[in-house]
Specification:
The complex is a heterodimer of chains A (about 650) and B (about 350). Chain A has about 650 residues and is of the alpha+beta class. Among the domains of chain A are: about 40-120 and about 220-275, subunit c (vma5p) of the yeast v-atpase, domain 2 (Up-down Bundle); about 125-220, Alpha-Beta Plaits, CATH 3.30.70. Helix content of chain A is about 60%, strand content about 10%. Chain A contains 19 helices and eleven strands. Chain A has helices spanning about 20-30, 45-70, 90-130, 160-165, 195-205, 220-275, 290-305, 330-345, 355-370, 375-390, 400-420, 440-465, 470-475, 480-500, 505-520, 525-530, 540-565, 565-590, 595-635; strands at about 5-15, 35, 145-155, 170-180, 180-190, 205-210, 275, 280-290, 310-315, 325, 640. In chain A, strands 1, 2, 7, 8 and 9 form a five-stranded antiparallel beta sheet that branches. The longest helix of chain A has about 55 residues, at about 220-275. In chain B, about 70% of the residues lie in helices and about 0% in strands. Chain B is built from 20 helices and no strands. In chain B, helix 6 (about 90-115) runs antiparallel to helix 11. Chain B has helices spanning about 5-20, 25-35, 40-45, 50-55, 65-85, 90-115, 120-125, 135-145, 145-150, 160-170, 175-195, 200-225, 230-235, 250-255, 260-265, 275-280, 280-305, 310-335, 340-345, 355. With about 350 residues, chain B is mostly helical. The chains are: A alpha+beta (about 650), B mainly alpha (about 350). Chains A and B meet through helix 4 and helix 5 of A and helix 10, helix 11 and helix 13 of B.
């Protein structure tokens, strides 16, 4: 819970005949993080690995084919089968997939063409609507003997230019309907000038409407005919949709089974493509959590009597661990907060997993800023609703449900401490303090809390450095012993200056601050000295001193700004009460007699507070966690643990 | 950012003045024309403002396409600097002016689709538009057909224009109507941007954009009439009805079949060897365009001697940069093939070449 799982490196030698059963065990157990060992293959044998990769590609192509068919039938992936994963034969499955695909395609093609035809007819109607009132037979415009006639649409910007281009011949150009971009026009003139009229129309981008045989009668008559045709097409579309429904029912189970079989085969083939191939054996390399090693080894030995397993456990200490996959093990509620941690970064193998700290401090900070029994309970219920996955539209946010609920409960708790319920500050008796009436105190407490959290961040960094055996970082990092000495001595100096009877004299803090300051200032140089890194510093001495002084200054500023940043916790606690009272004033203005308007305003105000202020407080909490707290100790950059599995599921 | 006047233009004026000194001097231009080959040309260019851009090219991989591409990056940066420094009410004009590179990119992508070119081939000729790029160029090319590519432009100002022209593309299977539609739409928008400017900015922007519009419009009319032999109504529909010194009547006169030489002579007195140029339009029209472009350079440079606190100065500056890019592109192409100077010098706009090019 506090650290990633301890991992063991595995090197397995598998006889060729046992390849599939062993791969099956590795995949089924879902604990083996594979490392590509195909580079170990000898040149000739390497082609075997290539052929597995080609098979994986063929499975992937078939998988896509099945998915497209499923999409056409609106069939979901379904659940993976529980039986043992096997490699299916492509030749056996492909004809079946193609037969289903063809069946679906035939129906789908009819549906698509009917839909397209309907859109075409609707388009004809749209073209005719602007001239629906004209009482002439449109078919007369087709192939007239003496008159050139063109009905069409063109860019409005080209209209004037078209008229200019026709100025030397007699013509009539009637704009029938015009908007900012387009204009529907009727262009007519003598058939003798048809060439000129046609060239002018074409070069002005006048796109003529396609008047076909269906365009007989007046525009309104044609529209009626087209509407009847559309009705027929709609019936046909309904029939095809019903057919698709039938196909869905017929093939749903078959497609889902095929999908998972092919998917599993693809994953197995892909895994085997990354094995190293020797003459009669395969070399499989990877990582497994040490706690799962024994079970895995037993299963592997059951699958292959001649298998050789070489294991090498890695302790979670020292620095050279970046290549080891990091598996986090946070059960239940903690799992929800793990997402917030991995969004910032994945801990390294030797690093403390800060999920539990996140699970404590995040709701604590949120609740302190949003303390209100009513609002907190609403938020908690909303969080539980999210987590329950009962509302389909909110399912994508279900991972956040527990976090929201925890924040809600924390806000409820602080609501009791602040004596606040739905913005009413005088209904409950405050157990601790009312922020709106004790503004200075709450701001001071917030900064104090921030200092405690930051100090804790320093201590974790020192602990992490010790685990990594990174002595330079432990002693001389600005967030290590040197930084903590400087930070605490500055705080002590401030305290001794303001508190008359402070037990420790200012001089002690001054000396400690100078020592800490110098260590932070020359942090890089001291680190290089400890690590044996040369040169000790880059560039000239003058530049180095200047740079070090600037870095110290920057660090002092960041100590101050990081500490003061927590003032927002108190400020939001005050603002929450302030915002609530603003809605009470608004409600009183809307409904002075406390009628319907009053209560409606209050309800809207409370929804606004829970939604909008809740979001802002959430963002502020995230900021305090990531930028102020995590940046003190969290390095991150660990490699994700991605165990081999026949099912494409997430890691944690 | 103040909207205009001395305070509005003080910053951009100083910035443009500083950057103006980065334009190639006559000595530098002479040095470039005398370079023996592409590496020598690049070496000379590295001592100019283009140096930091050319340093990005690995000398072992030096070729004309990479050099031109880096030089385009410099022009792009110049434009973006001017756009960001321009007073708010003039910024849309400078952006619209910059958009002609986007039109060129769009045409390059459409041609790439028509010719089945690879993304690599097309990418090499695209102008780097930086943060102002709105074209999904690679997706368009990978769509494989013109209709699908245009559909990908649905959230851009080009969609409507190209959709209208698409029917003609389908009928004629030629990109010509698409490209003409894009050009017309671009210049209309540019003209509208100029006309939206108030007072002094409008008059001064016209001094720079006006001659540019004139040059394009007259060259279109000449090409359509003399080279493509289009009909009167087509020439009219494919040209612009507005201009600075070239008016609609002039374009209509050319379209109607009047003596083209006399019209050009009246509009641009003193063009040398006009009749000879029009006799062989394929080679003559580009040379006529070069002569008119040299006049443009003179007009743009004259802006720097007048009252500076208006938009004409930044506009003239970016356009001078574009003309310099044109010259450098010719030079780079010539030097990469080690073409003798007498074969390419007449295609240069550089002042050092004026005397020679007067004799066409």
């Amino acid at each position: 819970m506090f650290f990633p799982q301890e991992m063991t490196e595995l090197e397995i030698i598998v006889p060729e005949k046992d390849l599939l059963p062993v791969t099956n065990v590795l995949a089924r157990q879902g604990v083996f993080h594979q490392v590509d060992s195909s580079y170990l293959s000898s040149h000739a044998e390497g082609k075997v690995g290539e052929s597995w990769k080609e098979r994986a590609s063929a499975y992937a192509a078939l998988e896509r084919q099945i998915m497209v068919t499923m999409q056409a039938l609106a069939v979901e992936d379904g659940n993976p089968p529980s039986d043992q994963a096997t490699l299916i034969k492509l030749e056996a499955v492909r004809p079946l997939v193609e037969q289903i695909e063809q069946d679906v395609k035939n129906t789908n093609d009819v549906l698509t063409s009917s839909t397209k035809k309907m859109e075409e007819l609707q388009n004809h109607i749209r073209q005719l609507l602007p001239i629906a009132d004209i009482d002439i037979d449109i078919s007369l415009l087709q192939n007239p003997r003496y008159v050139f006639s063109m009905l069409g649409i063109m860019p409005a910007a080209n209209l004037d230019r078209l008229e200019t281009s026709l100025s030397r011949i007699p013509y009539v150009l009637l704009p029938l309907q015009k908007d900012r971009e387009n204009v529907i026009v009727w262009l007519t003139g003598s058939q003798r000038n048809a060439d000129i009229l046609e060239r002018a129309a074409r070069s002005a981008y006048l796109n003529p409407f396609e008047l076909t045989d269906i365009h007989k009668g007046t525009p309104s008559e044609i529209i009626k005919t087209l509407n009847r045709n559309i009705e027929d097409l709609e019936k046909n579309i309904e029939t095809q949709k019903a057919r698709i429904g039938q196909l869905h029912a017929t093939y749903e189970h078959q497609l889902q089974t095929l999908l998972w079989r092919v998917r599993t085969s693809r994953l197995l083939a892909d895994a085997m493509g990354h094995y190293g191939k020797l003459q009669y054996t395969y070399v499989v390399v990877g990582w497994v959590p040490s706690s799962k090693l024994e079970t895995l080894a037993q299963e592997l030995k059951k699958a292959s009597a001649n298998i050789l397993i070489d294991s090498n456990p890695f302790r979670r200490l020292g620095m050279q661990n970046q290549h080891i996959p990091v598996s986090l093990q946070n059960p239940g509620i903690l799992g929800a907060f793990q997402g917030l941690v991995t969004t910032y970064g994945r801990p390294r193998y030797e690093e403390l997993d800060p999920t539990i700290l996140m699970a404590i401090t995040f709701p604590l900070l949120f609740g302190a800023m949003f303390g209100d029994v009513g609002h907190g309970l609403v938020l908690a219920l909303f969080g539980l609703l999210l987590a329950s996955r009962k509302v389909p539209a909110l399912r994508s946010m279900s991972g956040l449900g527990i976090v929201v609920a925890a924040c809600g409960f924390s806000a409820t708790l602080f609501g009791f401490l602040y004596g606040s319920i739905f913005g009413y500050e005088d209904v409950l008796k405050a157990i601790w303090i009312q922020p709106i009436h004790h503004i200075i105190q709450i701001l001071a407490i917030a900064i104090g809390g921030g200092i405690v959290l930051l100090s804790f961040g320093f201590l974790i960094n020192i602990y992490n450095a010790w685990r990594a055996r990174d002595w330079a970082r432990l002693f001389f990092d600005p967030n290590g012993v040197a930084g903590l000495t400087l930070y605490w001595s500055l705080l002590g100096f401030a305290a001794a200056s303001f508190i008359q009877s402070f037990p420790v004299p200012k001089l002690v803090f001054m000396i400690l601050a100078i020592i800490g300051g110098l260590a932070v200032m020359f942090s890089e140089l001291l680190k290089h000295l400890v690590e044996g890194h040369r040169p000790l510093f880059e560039g000239g001495v003058g530049m180095f001193l200047f740079q070090s002084a600037v870095e110290l200054f920057e660090k002092l500023i960041s100590f101050l700004s990081n500490s003061l940043s927590y003032v927002r916790v108190g400020a939001f606690a005050v603002a929450h009460a302030g915002l609530s009272s603003a809605f009470f004033i608004l409600a009183a203005l809307v409904g002075p007699d406390k009628g319907m308007g009053y209560w409606v305003t209050l309800v809207i105000g409370n929804i606004f507070i829970v939604g909008f202020e809740g979001l802002i407080v959430g963002i502020q909490t995230m900021r305090l966690e990531y930028y102020e707290f995590f940046s003190k100790f969290f390095i991150g950059g660990g490699m994700p643990y991605a165990p081999l599995t026949p099912l494409p599921t997430g890691e944690e | 950012m103040p909207s205009g006047g001395v305070s509005g233009y003080a910053a951009i004026h100083s910035r443009v003045r500083v950057m103006y000194s980065g334009l190639l001097s006559s000595e530098e231009e002479v040095g470039l024309t005398e370079a023996t080959d592409l590496p020598a040309l690049v070496s000379s260019l590295k001592n100019t403002v283009y140096g930091p851009y050319l340093d990005r090219i690995d000398e072992k991989e030096l070729d004309d396409r990479k050099v031109v591409s880096q030089i385009k990056h410099r022009i792009s940066d110049v434009y973006l600097t001017v756009i960001h420094s321009a007073p708010a009410n003039t910024r849309s004009l400078v952006i619209q002016l910059f958009r002609h590179f986007e039109i060129d990119n769009l045409k390059a992508v459409l041609r790439g689709i028509a010719n089945n070119s690879s993304w690599q081939q097309v990418q090499d000729v695209l102008f780097p538009l930086g943060s102002l790029n709105i074209l999904p160029a690679q997706q368009m090319l990978e769509s494989g057909n013109i209709e699908a590519a245009i559909a990908l432009l649905s959230n851009t100002p080009y969609h409507e224009t190209l959709t209208f022209a698409l029917k003609r593309y389908s009928d004629e299977q030629s990109l010509f109507p698409l490209e003409v539609a894009l050009d017309l739409s671009y210049w209309r928008k540019l003209w509208a941007s100029v006309n939206q400017l108030p007072g002094q900015d409008h008059a001064q922007a016209l001094r720079v954009i006006g001659p540019l519009v004139d040059l394009n419009n007259i060259m279109w009319a000449l090409r359509y009439r003399v080279y493509h032999r289009l009909s009167e109504e087509e020439v009219i529909n494919y040209t612009l009805p507005f201009g600075y010194k070239v008016h609609d009547e002039d374009i209509r006169t050319i379209a109607a079949g009047a003596d083209v030489g006399r019209v050009v002579e009246r509009l641009y007195p003193g063009v040398s060897n006009l009749d000879a140029l029009l006799l062989d339009p394929e080679r003559g029209l580009p040379k006529l365009e070069l002569q008119l472009q040299r006049r443009l350079i003179a007009q743009f440079k004259s802006v720097f001697t007048g009252y500076p606190f208006n938009i004409s100065l930044p506009l003239a500056f970016v356009l001078l940069n574009e003309l310099e890019l044109q010259d450098l592109t010719v030079l780079i192409g010539a030097k990469s093939t080690q073409m003798p100077s007498e074969k390419f010098s007449s295609y240069l706009l550089m002042e050092t070449n004026l005397d020679k090019t007067a004799i066409v």
